[in-house]
């Protein structure tokens, strides 16, 4: 089976970037999704020149930091700051999000990554907001436009968008070698493992509700036993461009 260890939040901060690169050089991470509106963006883009084995997708953002576009009414406040995850989910469920605003913001985020010389492998969303009602159709439209894969989170995938099985349990107390062993032993299809390895810096510590756990993920992913388990079960490390 092809397995994709995708590290979310590339570009979040320098500490996140360095942790993801470490998990690529000394672990199984061969894929990451990049945030375009965060302080570590330029730093992350620079590091990619030295890490050609890391495929980069777009981590579409509607719930963290400030928008790239601004002037929105339904996806950000008057200062351009995105609403919280709960607020976005509530607004999407009620049909209160102007999808033209989402389309404009997604276009700007994808363009910023393309302009940095990065050819994206796939799309996913911070806090999985890319699969919310209405917003999903916008995300799919960009996937079709750029011929990209999409993280479907084990939901039915639309026509002509290839999806893989999705594992989101490698997190917090489950970010262990034993947990990976149990999941790797049972795979029956190409699969993405979502992960969040990082070194902790001040921005991550103050802005993310999940910071300490990322160090545990990094420690596990760079444990040589993990690579040995992948070999043991005959899996092949990949990124979305390999599908």
Any idea what the CATH superfamily is called?
Glycoside hydrolase/deacetylase
How many distinct helices? 9
Question: Distance between termini?
Answer: 11 Å
Helix-residue proportion: 25-40%
User: What does the largest sheet look like?
Assistant: 8 strands, parallel
User: Low-confidence parts, pLDDT < 50 over ≥5 residues?
Assistant: none
Quick one: overall form?
Answer: globular
The chain-level mean pLDDT equals 97
Any overview of this molecule?
- It is a single chain.
- This protein is of the alpha/beta class and 243 residues long.
- It has one domain: TIM Barrel.
- The chain contains nine helices and eight strands.
- Strands 1, 2, 3, 4, 5, 6, 7 and 8 form an eight-stranded parallel beta sheet that branches.
- Helix 6 (177-184) links the parallel strand 6 and strand 7 (191-195).
- Helix 4 (99-115) packs parallel to helix 5 and helix 6 (177-184) packs parallel to helix 9 (224-232).
- The protein is globular.
- The termini are close together.
Summed up:
The protein has 243 residues and is of the alpha/beta class. It contains 9 helices and 8 strands.
Features:
eight-stranded parallel sheet, TIM Barrel, globular
Chain-wise SSE layout:
Blueprint: E1 2-10, H1 14-25, E2 29-34, H2 41-48, E3 55-60, H3 85-93, H4 99-115, E4 122-125, H5 135-146, E5 149-150, E6 165-167, H6 177-184, E7 191-195, H7 202-207, H8 212-221, H9 224-232, E8 236-237
Parallel strand pairs: 1-2, 1-7, 1-8, 2-3, 3-4, 4-5, 6-7
């Amino acid at each position: 089976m092809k397995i994709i260890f995708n590290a979310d939040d590339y570009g979040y901060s320098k500490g996140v970037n360095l942790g993801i690169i470490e998990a690529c050089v000394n672990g199984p991470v061969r894929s990451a999704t990049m945030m375009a509106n965060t302080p570590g963006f330029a730093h992350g883009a620079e590091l990619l020149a030295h890490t050609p084995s890391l495929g980069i997708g777009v981590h579409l953002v509607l719930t963290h930091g400030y928008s790239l576009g601004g002037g929105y009414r339904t996806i950000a406040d008057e200062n351009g700051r995105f609403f919280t995850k709960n607020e976005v989910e509530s607004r999407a469920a009620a049909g209160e999000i102007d999808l033209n605003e989402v389309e404009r913001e997604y276009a700007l985020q994808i363009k910023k990554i393309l302009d940095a010389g990065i050819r994206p492998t796939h799309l996913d969303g911070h806090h999985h907001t890319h699969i919310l009602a209405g917003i999903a159709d916008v995300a799919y439209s960009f996937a079709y436009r750029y011929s990209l894969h999409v993280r479907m989170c084990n939901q039915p995938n639309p026509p002509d968008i290839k999806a893989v099985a999705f594992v989101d349990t490698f997190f917090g107390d489950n970010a262990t070698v034993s947990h990976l062993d149990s999941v790797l032993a049972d795979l029956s299809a190409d699969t993405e493992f979502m992960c969040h390895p990082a070194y902790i810096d001040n921005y991550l510590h103050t802005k993310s509700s999940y910071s300490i756990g990322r160090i545990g993920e990094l420690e596990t992913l760079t444990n040589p036993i993990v690579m040995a388990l992948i070999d043991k079960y005959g899996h092949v490390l990949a990124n979305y461009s390999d599908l």
